[in-house]
Design goal:
- It holds the Pfam family Glyoxalase.
- By secondary structure, the chain is of the alpha+beta class.
- The chain has a single domain, classed as 2,3-Dihydroxybiphenyl 1,2-Dioxygenase, domain 1 (Roll).
- The protein contains five helices and 16 strands.
- The strands form two sheets. Strands 2-3-4-1-13-16-15-14 form an eight-stranded mixed β-sheet. An eight-stranded mixed β-sheet has the order 6-7-8-5-9-12-11-10, with helices on one face.
- Strand 14 and strand 15 form a beta hairpin.
- The model has no long low-confidence stretch (mean pLDDT 96).
């Protein structure tokens, strides 16, 4: 079966305990646009918030499930241990360092990831994040920053960068990335002053928007997920027809998966790689403007058509979240 290469990151989905504070941080502090306020389609009593570039272009979405009783995260292996966000230049990182100091955002000193300047930081729930400079980047393009953001457009976040996994054993994850998903190893580097060796894999056009970085730490316990942890990472598939080929391909290779899943804003497929990390393949379209105009994205609770008859019951289980203005 002839499959087209995956195009890079589609979105990363994480866990928050507090949708209001989450909305405040990711829109007002990080300057991302809330492009969709909806619910977790597998558990409609919880919010699912999508932050992205100006319209939620594929490869720009950082999403959160609100789990109000989520406990703390105990970091460890077999996890998505770092989400990176692309900014335009090395100069942008200086801007962000000053902004983090102004808003009391916990952050480290400037460093490098795979030869790119970067700035590691945490949100109010210790979500592990980093900004990465696109100044010397080549490969898949990012999105377009929202011009109504409180962050200067020339320094604004405009896409997802490399996703970092921490595993106890590289080989099983490496086999899935290279033999099943079609990634190629593109290099190695040291992170945190040589403490961790990182192996880089890339797909499609490569570059910041199409890389998976893997750290091996066999001496750590398995991560116990909670608020501030990442639930899954999704990779870009061109079309629904292509996604259905992936469904068949995984079945042929005896890899258990969800099969085809309708998410309305995109179509998906889920499976776990051998170390237990949840991967999703998601289509580039249809996008977020099927039920809201570009100008009003994220302002009201959006529900896919197949949930509209449950709207009253769904809204009654959610705490109000004002996302207008």
């Amino acid at each position: 079966m002839q499959l087209k290469p995956l195009k890079g990151q589609h979105h990363v989905s994480a866990i928050t305990k507090d949708a209001k504070r989450n909305y405040e941080f990711y829109t007002n502090t990080l300057g991302m646009r809330l492009v969709k306020k909806t619910v977790n389609q597998d558990e409609t009593s919880m919010y699912h918030l999508f932050y992205a570039d100006e319209r939620g272009n594929p490869g720009t979405d950082l999403t959160f499930f609100e789990i109000r009783n989520a406990g703390r995260t105990y970091p460890g292996t077999n996890s998505i241990s770092l989400t990176t966000l692309r900014v335009p230049s090395d100069e942008s990182l200086q801007y962000w360092k000053k902004r983090f100091e102004k808003y009391n955002v916990e952050h480290d000193e400037l460093t490098e990831m795979n030869g790119k300047k970067s700035l590691f930081f945490r949100d109010f729930e210790n979500q592990r994040l980093a900004l990465i400079s696109d100044e010397n980047n080549k490969g898949v393009s990012g999105g377009k920053a929202w011009d109504k953001s409180p962050v200067l457009v020339e320094h604004a976040i405009f896409g997802l960068g490399p996703v970092v996994l921490t595993v106890a054993d590289l080989r099983p994850t490496e086999r899935v990335l290279t033999q099943i998903l079609g990634y190629r190893e593109s290099g190695k580097y040291n992170l945190s002053a040589g403490q961790h060796d990182v192996t880089v894999f890339e797909t499609g056009e490569g570059g910041n928007g199409a890389e998976v970085h893997i750290i091996v730490q066999a001496d750590l316990p398995r991560e116990r997920a909670g608020r501030g942890s990442v639930h899954h990472v999704a990779f870009r598939v061109e079309s629904e027809d292509e996604l259905r080929k992936w469904v068949a391909f995984l079945k042929e290779n005896r890899i258990p998966s969800s099969g085809f899943v309708e998410r309305y804003y995109f179509r998906s497929l889920y499976f776990r790689e051998p170390n237990g990390i949840l991967f999703e393949l998601a289509t580039d379209g249809p996008g977020f403007e099927g039920d809201e105009s570009f100008e009003q994205l994220g302002e009201t609770l959006a529900l896919p058509p197949y949930f509209e008859d449950q709207r009253q019951a769904i809204e009654s289980r959610l705490e109000p979240l004002d996302t207008q203005g």
